[in-house]
């Protein structure tokens, strides 16, 4: 009698049809999704990403049922396992998120749309005026992207999987998504979700790293001796076209990311209000919404119970921690070489994640010296970090499949 009553509610009945381990993982995920929504609402984590992601995680794991066509447990959200054209057509008629996943995720388009939006809010003045300093600060901040690779290999991941995980150290979510889709498609969901959750934590974690490694008198350097030269819109457009073309020529596998980012910059500098509105309000906000929501809907219980998941959580932390340490080391070297004129906090801005790490650097300096307004300077290494991260991702994608271990 009780079983008949429960069968009225297929979502509850599905708990009885799965292994206890899966049922427990499912409950944990529902609670995790609710927690992410709450932390996003309270602005502890990035609300633009965490609220849709948490909503997806909670509701996709609540909405599991016995599918009438296959008599297997599934959801009405999406099926990432379809392969043939016939399966895709059938899936489009059943799963409401299937078109978004098939047409924007599987080919990396969603990452490119986010990059167009990021480019449209990026100010290039300091980077163009001081490209050498920006790049020299960004390169050490790729420490996590490099050292995490051998660490992941030693923990049993394949070279392609290790490279995908290492890209987390670049602190650029779309980059992680793009690279993992090409190198480790079977792990792209957990790798990308781990990356985005950690990227949301960066804003709260990196200030402590800065505080415990850089003395106050260094953090408060206002860099008044450095002038931020104004660069004309025409110069920025020319720079974007030339630099983007050169990078696409050298690293064609990452050309979708380069062209998307620099197209966003060109849209910004062209001063065409319609384009700017579309790039910022529509593409960036809309792509971020569906990126977070779809990733959340892809995180099912079977992924969480995979033993690799715990390793990914550990490696994601290692990657971003090492990149933060590398950024600080680079900043301290720049401080020493410049005779104390460069604020070493700028090194953290080189960990990409534009403009979050630039904001972290500015806030850390402003706390100890209210007259230290270093945000314009921090944007330089932050932009350079996007470029260096894309170059490393391109090298991994190009070289790893050719190597034998």
**Computed CA radius of gyration, to the nearest angstrom:** 22 Å
Silhouette: globular
User: What's the β-strand tally?
Assistant: 2
Total individual domains = 2
The string of secondary-structure elements, in order, is HHHHEEHHHHHHHHHHHHHHHHHH
Key structural traits:
405 residues, mainly alpha, 2 domains, two-stranded antiparallel sheet, 22 helices, 1% strand, globular
Q: What topology emerges from the helices and strands here?
A:
Blueprint (H helix, E strand, L loop, with lengths): L1 H5 L3 H7 L3 H22 L5 H16 L2 E2 L6 E2 L10 H8 L5 H8 L3 H12 L4 H5 L1 H8 L4 H12 L4 H8 L6 H11 L4 H26 L2 H4 L13 H18 L4 H16 L2 H26 L2 H4 L3 H30 L8 H4 L6 H13 L6 H25 L6
Antiparallel strand pairs: 1-2
Helix pairs in contact: 3-4, 4-17, 7-12, 7-16, 7-17, 9-19, 9-22, 10-11, 10-19, 11-12, 12-13, 12-22, 13-19, 13-21, 15-16, 21-22
Q: Can you tell me about this structure?
A:
The protein has about 400 residues and is an all-alpha fold. It folds into two domains: about 80 residues; about 290 residues, no CATH class. Helices cover about 70% and strands about 0% of the residues. Strands 1-2 form a two-stranded antiparallel sheet. α9 packs across α19, α9 crosses α22 and α12 packs parallel to α22. The mean pLDDT is about 85.
In short:
The chain is mainly alpha-helical. It has helices at 2-6, 10-16, 20-41, 47-62, 85-92, 98-105, 109-120, 125-129, 131-138, 143-154, 159-166, 173-183, 188-213, 216-219, 233-250, 255-270, 273-298, 301-304, 308-337, 346-349, 356-368, 375-399; strands at 65-66, 73-74.
